[in-house]
């Protein structure tokens, strides 16, 4: 109605309103960051429901992360003023898991299939590569994994790959064999990897049109956020879901009691669902995972008659932040020129900072966060981004020391810890008895005297007799093993059976299709970790680290308790699904009151009052791996653009002059992308040029464009350097002494000199090695022991 319509379009600009009110088959919204794309999607969903054009259950909205999904659901419900249950708002992966669990039988899969994460994939590939001696042809678990993933994202399977294999190329033939065995092992274990979740759903729909029709009928409105990052398999899935249903199938569906009448058109068929996609090709950052910008570019061809809406005004950031973003992204070729603008004014300048070390940089971030907090910015409205997970170490160390509340989003690695994987493997083995990987993981964890030879014996016995690993365990007494080992194997099988029995609902519940009477996930987990001896082995261990491991397992138990409480009636498989999806992408709950730490990839679609982009160094951003990839540096630039455009009011850009990587400290160069930001936009607190002038506040970024300046050339001296890892000069010290980053370039030291170090105190130089900028002082400190320091940047002075 007119009134409700105006409420939902109130405060939208004319183009946004047009997109919300459009009622055709296909709608494409292309626009830069922060222009309200996601907001339009949200309002569009609310508008469809409020006008009674769609039931919540007829909506399928795809977001990029679980966090984004939860947010979108919340906003839709807030707009409607009521719950909208039945609406599917989820990631591609979650939506596909839901479909596959329901329809698993059709494609010969158990509905309790396991979802393998990256580490599981590599474990399996490692075994295959070893058995095939494929490493001699250069195969590693990592590169085989990448290749398989690429193929699956292209919807290739073993058969289609085999057809195109060059049989004269031993590497290709070998890879085919790896791919074949990998596929077979997952199938035997009733397991799917992440890419399978999408491709198997496409396969399901293509092979079983009747199943597809059920979903085509159900979802009348499909909306996809971040469309620029869909890969071919995801694109194919969308195409399947938006197909019209022909009249004869509609008749057939009606005969099976499916309600179709309300939906049919004049021909008696059901028209395809309406599709809305929104995206920004400047934010395409998943090409390495097969994301295909062409999906957005060719949308109009694929969906003829599609309406295209362009949004230009940015509502998120200040003009200074947008000008920086515009300047950076304009360096990418092959893009449609578009400029973000805001009506909200310039805002503060961007703050720049260069630390000596990652710790120094982290200290700057922590200090600034405290200052922001004191000025009234909530911790939850502050985020710190980085390119690689390894960069969290220094940040976390300093944050802990500063008692700053923070949370690492996504990369917590909790579920990747060995002890958590062990406990989870017990649960998986109970839920999916076919899962050999899980069984082999727990076979001798905790230690029960079952060695690798026995494991292999069980595996080959299974192979020879066409048994599953679990069945072979049951037949252990026929394997001629010692009585103790046999008893250990049988004992484990009994334990798993007993746990499985706990999960069976009572008779009436089974008849009613509910889970009544089944043990809670937490009870089963407690039973397993106690009876298997897993938790006691950790608690009673002499290894001090095992104490933490035991606590982690207890934390997992606590998590299952939360899960049981929040999801009454949910099954073990539900829990396992949630863990695999959440652990892989991001976390569901949005902790308030903490600073968020995350990778740039995870940051997509989010926004914060203040954003810190850290580690802006060559090798990190652009990442060194991108150098060899075609289009790599351009994609890294888009990643930087995504990071910049997350900030509403305050943006901080920081880097360190040296950074510990792989146990060494390397001298770092400022990221090339920093030079692309007009000087006037950044206020350097400590400049990236290694200024020597005392109190010199002149930003050395000015040198950036001077040929041969500190940034322009690749300084051959700046090679990897092995110096002490613990030198962590404090920012205040640096500021006090020089007002800028220290450069000891011309400090002459020789054996016998006394020096003072900001952290280690006084000491005597025992030796100087290396030349020029690579000179290293070997110092015997009075209290801190022996250290090696890179003289050029070490926070030292000669006494
Ligand atoms: P991204 O490309 O980063 O995903 P986006 O295009 O999806 O960005 P949104 O997140 O939807 O942008 O919007 C950015 C911010 O601007 C949000 O805080 C949103 O609420 C706000 N916004 C969008 N449109 C308007 C408007 N017409 N009036 C006021 N605020 C708006
Ligand atoms: Mg968005």
Question: What does this entry look like structurally?
Answer:
The strands form 5 sheets. A 7-stranded parallel sheet has the order 11-12-10-13-14-9-17, covered by helices on one side. The relative contact order is 0.10. The chain contains 30 helices and 23 strands. About 7% of the residues have low confidence. It is globular, with a radius of gyration of 29 Å. It starts with a helix and ends with a strand. Helix 1 packs antiparallel against helix 3 and helix 10 crosses helix 11. With 799 residues, the chain is an alpha/beta fold. Strand 2, helix 4 and strand 3 form a beta-alpha-beta unit. Helix content is 42%, strand content 14%. The structure holds adenosine-5'-triphosphate and magnesium ion. Magnesium ion binds next to helix 3.
């Amino acid at each position: 109605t007119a009134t409700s319509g105006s409420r939902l379009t109130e405060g939208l600009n004319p183009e946004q309103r047009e997109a919300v009110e459009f009622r055709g088959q296909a709608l494409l919204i292309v626009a830069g960051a922060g222009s309200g794309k996601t907001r339009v999607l949200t309002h569009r969903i609310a508008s469809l429901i409020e006008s009674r054009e769609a039931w919540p259950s007829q909506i399928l909205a795809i977001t990029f992360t679980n966090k984004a999904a939860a947010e979108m659901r919340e906003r839709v419900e807030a707009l409607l003023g009521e719950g909208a249950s039945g609406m599917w708002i989820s990631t591609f992966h979650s939506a596909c898991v839901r479909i596959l669990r329901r329809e698993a039988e059709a494609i010969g899969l158990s509905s309790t299939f396991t979802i393998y994460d990256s580490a599981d994939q590599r474990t399996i590939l490692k075994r295959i590569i070893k058995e095939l001696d494929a490493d001699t042809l250069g195969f590693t678990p990592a590169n085989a994994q990448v290749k398989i993933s690429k193929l699956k994202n292209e919807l290739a399977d073993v058969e289609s790959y085999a057809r195109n294999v060059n049989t004269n190329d031993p590497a290709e033939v070998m890879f085919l064999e790896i791919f074949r065995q990998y596929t077979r092992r997952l199938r035997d274990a009733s397991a799917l990897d992440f890419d399978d979740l999408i491709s198997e759903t496409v396969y399901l729909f293509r092979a079983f049109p009747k199943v597809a029709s059920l979903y085509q009928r159900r979802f009348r409105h499909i909306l996809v956020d971040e469309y620029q990052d869909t890969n071919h398999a995801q694109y194919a899935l969308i195409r399947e879901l938006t197909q019209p249903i022909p009249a004869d199938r509609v008749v057939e569906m009606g005969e099976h009691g499916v309600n179709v009448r309300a939906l049919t058109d004049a021909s008696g068929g059901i028209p395809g669902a309406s599709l809305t996609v929104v995206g920004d090709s400047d934010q395409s950052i998943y090409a390495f995972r097969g994301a295909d910008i062409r999906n957005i570019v060719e949308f109009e061809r694929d969906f003829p008659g599609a309406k295209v809406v362009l949004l230009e005004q940015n509502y998120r950031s200040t003009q200074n932040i947008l000008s920086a973003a515009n300047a950076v992204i304009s360096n990418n070729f092959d893009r449609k020129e578009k400029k973000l603008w805001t009506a909200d004014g310039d805002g503060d300048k961007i703050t720049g900072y260069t630390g000596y070390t990652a710790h120094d940089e982290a200290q700057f971030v922590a200090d600034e966060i405290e200052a922001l907090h004191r000025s009234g910015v909530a911790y939850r409205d502050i985020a710190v981004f980085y390119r690689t997970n390894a960069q969290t170490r220094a940040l976390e160390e300093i944050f802990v020391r500063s008692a700053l509340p923070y949370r690492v989003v996504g990369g917590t690695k909790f579920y990747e810890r060995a002890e958590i994987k062990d406990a989870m493997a017990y649960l998986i083995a109970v839920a999916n008895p076919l899962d050999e990987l899980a069984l082999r993981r727990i076979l001798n964890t905790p230690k029960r005297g079952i060695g690798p030879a026995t494991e292999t014996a069980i595996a080959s016995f299974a192979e020879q007799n066409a048994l599953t690993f679990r069945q072979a365990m049951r037949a252990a007494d026929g394997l001629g093993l010692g009585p103790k080992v046999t008893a250990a194997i049988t004992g484990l099988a009994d334990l798993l059976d007993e746990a499985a029995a706990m999960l069976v609902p009572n008779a009436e519940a089974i008849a009613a299709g509910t889970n009544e009477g089944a043990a809670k996930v937490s009870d089963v987990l407690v039973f397993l970790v106690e009876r298997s001896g897993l938790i006691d082995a950790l608690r009673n261990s002499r290894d001090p680290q095992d104490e933490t491991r035991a606590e982690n397992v207890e934390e997992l138990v606590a998590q299952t308790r939360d899960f049981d409480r929040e999801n009454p009636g949910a099954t073990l498989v539900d829990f396992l699904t949630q863990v695999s999806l959440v652990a892989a992408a991001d976390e569901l709950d949005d902790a308030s009151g903490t600073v968020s730490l995350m990778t740039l990839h995870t940051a997509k679609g989010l926004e914060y009052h203040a954003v810190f982009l850290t580690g802006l160094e060559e090798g990190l951003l652009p990442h060194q791996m991108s150098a060899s990839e075609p289009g790599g540096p351009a994609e890294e630039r888009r990643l930087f653009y995504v990071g910049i455009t997350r900030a509403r009011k305050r943006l901080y850009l920081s880097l360190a002059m040296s950074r510990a990587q792989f146990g060494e400290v390397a001298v770092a160069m400022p990221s090339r992308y920093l030079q692309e930001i007009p000087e006037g936009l950044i206020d350097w607190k400590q400049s990236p040029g290694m200024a020597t002038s005392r109190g010199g506040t002149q930003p050395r970024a000015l040198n950036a464009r001077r040929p041969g300046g500190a940034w322009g050339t690749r300084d051959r001296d700046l090679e990897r350097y092995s110096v002490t890892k613990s030198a962590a000069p404090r920012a205040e010290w640096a500021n006090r002494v020089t007002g800028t980053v220290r450069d000891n370039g011309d400090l002459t030291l020789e054996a016998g000199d006394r020096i003072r170090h900001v952290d280690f105190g006084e000491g005597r130089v025992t030796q100087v090695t290396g030349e020029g900028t690579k000179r290293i002082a070997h110092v015997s400190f009075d209290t801190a022991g022996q250290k090696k320091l890179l003289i050029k940047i070490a926070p030292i002075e000669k006494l």
